[in-house]
Design a protein that fits this description.
17 helices, about 20% strand, 4-stranded mixed β-sheet, alpha+beta, single chain
Length: about 400
């Protein structure tokens, strides 16, 4: 086993760990394919922005190609669910088997820790309302926050009403969970009425054991990573992982290595694949595990990436909702994309090539955009002539 890894090999290891060294399925895509992706990447970060499609649908498309989106909906919302929602790498869909590994976070949240400071302070002052809302869920669940009188919001912290604060605290504390969604709004119920009985009643591991297992999941999903990368996957604190990485090294599950150009110590998962070539072609959501930790994306791909949704339009460098384009084992381009559903158009509002992008980048990107338009049931693609890649992309799509 190598103890010094080239940057190019590190990229291939990381992409293989995320499933990009495999070809997309040739036939119909079903729940087995979804489960295979989730077993690799461990979770899907949930995001409400739907400029193209909500971000949690995208990692499956990036790895599987055009798949029925209700596949994910059923896995997260049906009685035979295989996914549940909780705070992992932000709000996330996770395999139900991960539920016991996050009970320590729920227990800490119940003591007003391991959550947003503002919510914790609010909860300490509003215990009676929290108990009242919990009783409502017991009696009426599944129920949305907006179904409770007064839950419309009054412009306070995050614009939430007191009732919405109570729902969110109960969710953090694990006393309620998401049963399903109405549009994008959560419908809450008791976890014992939502989760499979074997999962809900499973033994709860000690926090140190759970942290170690979450690091194992992170290490498999990343392939090669720094301690910071491993922690970030499930938002673990330095105190949570103290001594845990060393234990995984001692057990032979992680191998300390040096990666070309990285100043930090890296760790290679001993089961990681080391492909000679990765021939990926994928548009990535801003919250895809390949790029969600921006410093890691910069270290691996020499790709500086920031989401500019909250940047004033005049100050944006690349656009409102920019997706990186993975080609081979490099990020070859980025495009500002929008799904104009009323018009049936997938709009490329800007397209930029990265330094050293392959000559066939426009052609490969055009193919991926055609696939995305078909997946989103949009009739055509229109390219605005903004960005250095836009003219070639427009010509390719027109041919």
């Amino acid at each position: 086993m190598k103890d010094r890894i080239s940057l190019k090999l590190a990229r291939r290891i990381a992409l293989a760990a995320q499933g990009f060294a495999d070809s997309r399925p040739a036939g119909p895509i079903d729940r087995r394919h979804l489960n295979k992706v989730l077993s690799r990447i461990g979770l899907l970060q949930i995001d409400s922005v739907s400029v193209v499609v909500r971000a949690h649908y995208m990692p499956l498309f990036s790895r599987l190609g055009s798949y029925p989106r209700d596949l994910l909906d059923k896995a997260a919302n049906s009685k035979k669910r295989s996914l549940f929602e909780y705070w992992a790498h932000e709000a996330s869909f996770l395999p139900v088997e991960t539920y016991p590994l996050l009970r320590w976070r729920m227990e800490r949240a119940s003591r007003h820790k391991e959550m947003y400071t503002g919510l914790a302070k609010w909860a300490q002052q509003n215990k009676r309302l929290i108990d009242d809302i919990y009783s409502e869920v017991v009696a009426r669940g599944p129920v949305a926050a907006s179904d409770i009188d007064g839950a419309k919001g009054s412009g306070g912290w995050w614009g939430w009403s007191d009732e919405k604060h109570a729902f969110e605290w109960l969710f953090w504390a694990g006393r309620i969970t998401t049963a399903s969604r109405r549009g994008f709004e959560r419908l809450y119920d008791l976890p014992e009425r939502v989760l499979p009985a074997a999962i809900y009643n499973a033994a709860v591991p000690q926090a140190a054991d759970a942290h170690r297992e979450l690091l194992r999941i992170s290490a498999r999903a990343l392939g090669i990573a720094t301690v910071g990368d491993l922690r970030d996957y499930f938002r673990l604190s330095p105190a949570d992982v103290k001594g845990r990485v060393e234990e995984l090294v001692e057990s032979g599950e992680l191998l300390p290595v040096r990666v070309e150009g990285w100043s930090q110590q890296a760790y290679l998962h001993t089961g990681a694949r080391m492909p000679r070539k990765v021939e990926a072609r994928a548009l990535l959501a801003p919250f895809d595990p390949v790029v969600w930790e921006r410093s890691r994306a910069e270290r691996l791909f020499c790709f500086r990436y920031r989401i500019e949704i909250y940047t004033p339009a005049a100050k944006r460098q690349y656009g409102y909702y920019v997706l990186p384009f993975l080609l081979g084992d490099t990020i070859a381009a980025r495009i500002d994309l929008k799904a104009d559903r009323p018009a049936g158009v997938l709009r490329v509002q800007a397209a930029y090539a990265e330094p050293g992008a392959p000559a066939h980048t426009a052609e490969a990107l055009a193919d991926e955009l055609r696939l995305m338009a078909q997946w989103l049931e949009l009739e055509r693609i229109e390219v605005v002539p903004a960005g250095d890649l836009a003219p070639a992309l427009k010509d390719t799509l027109a041919s």
